[in-house]
Specification:
The chain has 460 residues and is α+β, with helices and mostly antiparallel strands. Helix content is 57%, strand content 16%. Helix 5 packs antiparallel against helix 6 (267-294) and helix 7 packs parallel to helix 8 (346-363).
């Protein structure tokens, strides 16, 4: 029902708009036509009256022509004759014509100055044409501009007929346009409704006006993006489930061994350590997941303070030196001798560096180096974690910070984590006001750089 109302509304609006436009155009055309007819008729009357005034002035200047006869002939044509004597007196049989001649300026007519004027007397327009006579006087012909009612009715009828034709055409055009627009819009709406119910196989056919085609293409692109995103989410959840199940299985197995008395004596201590280690892995993964989920929340808390990155890196290196040594990996630290101060949350920044270092140690074979480096580049402080492992392809570097992408690509090929860490690092660095990127390292493996704004510097 809602779709029908929407379609009816579209039809009504387009048709109403067409009717309004057609009505306005017809009215404007009618007004212009009336104006043109009025002007043309008046100009024709004035031109005829001027010719008659020239003839009358010539005839009255001939003493053989009787003035009353001329007046009678013109009166039969609806033209009044007004004369101005040599003394300036203005006379005529029609008082209204006399007033019009005076008002139009008959007193100023001379041999060098004819009168082409008009006057409005009691709401009636009168045209006045005056000419000088040989005896020093002047004569004026006065005619009322009066359009016949029949002509007016015909003109109004023509305007109304044009208006009716325009309305009919507008209604038909509105109906056709509404149907043309409604069909692709209806299909687009159906696809959108299907997408809202979880369908990702629906697509909008490219039809209709260009703007509607663009809307359909945008909706299709959205459907493709949603399908890819949901596929990655499913893969990510499957991988997380697998990663969580592995330590859970270990914890459960060793716990059952303890409960059944299978493990006893000195083995209990080692089993307890294994359970503690696997529980720590579980806790770390759950914490990463919670942090990743909270990153977009407004209540995600940061404790900002001034941090000297040279001291910060030295403290991180002391922890990772022993871990690298246990894995047979040499750790190298590159840091300037002068302080590099930034305002950041040291705990969250340490979380980022530890996550990157853990990935580096996991991917680096024994004997290859891991490097923790600090430098200032282009006014920015750059923390680097580099390794001598197998590295990534160019395409992998571009997608390195998307959840689960690297895990799904390298699962079973090389040691890897859950795919959460890099996404979490990207989110944390972004919330800290910095940026993070990835690329090849000079040691042959991968390089991850965290860029922060030093105190007193501005991002370029």
């Amino acid at each position: 029902m809602g779709g029908l109302v929407g379609r009816a509304s579209l039809w009504v609006r387009i048709t109403a708009l067409g009717l309004v436009v057609a009505g306005v155009m017809a009215l404007v055309a009618g007004l212009v036509s009336v104006r043109l007819v009025t002007t043309t008729s008046r100009d024709a009357i004035r031109e005829t009256l001027a010719d008659q005034a020239d003839v009358v002035a010539a005839q009255l200047g001939d003493i053989r022509v009787a003035a009353p006869r001329v007046t009678e002939i013109l009166s039969g044509q609806g033209i009044a004759v007004v004369r101005r004597g040599r003394g300036g007196a203005v006379t005529g049989a029609d008082e209204r014509a006399v007033r019009a001649a005076r008002r139009a300026g008959l007193a100023g007519v001379s041999r060098d100055r004819a009168l082409h004027g008009s006057a409005n007397i009691a709401g009636t327009l009168l045209l006045v044409e005056g000419r000088a006579l040989d005896n020093g006087g002047a004569v004026a012909l006065v005619r009322t501009v009066d359009y016949s009612k029949a002509a007016g009715r015909r003109l109004v009828g023509n305007v109304l007929f044009a208006l009716a034709i325009g309305m009919v055409v507008a209604a038909v055009a509105g109906l056709l346009l509404a149907r043309l627009l409604a069909r692709p819009l209806r299909r687009t709406a159906e696809v959108a409704v299907g997408m809202s119910h979880g369908r990702r196989d629906l697509r909008v056919p490219p039809e209709g006006p260009r703007e509607l085609v663009e809307v359909g293409q945008s909706l299709n692109a959205l459907a493709d993006a949603l399908a890819r995103s949901e596929a990655r989410q499913r893969e990510f959840l499957l991988s997380i489930s697998h990663e969580l199940r592995t330590p859970l299985t270990s914890v459960r197995g060793f716990a059952e061994s303890l409960a059944d008395g299978v493990v006893a004596g000195d083995e209990v201590v080692e089993v307890g350590r294994t359970i503690e280690r696997e529980a720590g892995r579980l806790d770390g993964m759950v914490s990463d997941l919670l942090d990743l989920a909270r990153l977009g929340a407004d209540d995600f808390r940061l404790t900002l303070t001034d941090v000297d990155l040279t001291v910060f890196l030295a403290e991180a290196a002391r922890v990772w030196e022993s871990r690298c040594a246990a894995a047979g990996i040499p750790l190298r630290v590159e840091s300037p001798s002068t302080p590099v101060l930034v305002r950041t949350d040291p705990n969250r920044l340490r979380q980022v560096v530890d996550g990157l270092a853990a990935n580096a140690v996991r991917a680096t074979p024994s004997g290859a180096p891991v490097v923790l480096a600090l430098r200032t580049t282009s006014g920015l402080a750059e923390l680097q974690v580099r390794d001598g492992g197998p590295g990534l392809s160019d395409g992998d570097y571009r997608h390195a910070f998307e959840k689960g992408v690297l895990h799904s690509r390298y699962q079973g090929v090389r040691p890897g984590g859950t795919g959460i860490g890099l996404a979490l690092a990207h989110g944390l660095v972004t919330r800290l006001g910095g940026r993070i990127d990835a690329g090849p390292a000079p040691e042959g493996g991968a390089r991850f750089s965290v860029w922060l704004q030093p105190l007193g510097q501005h991002l370029g």
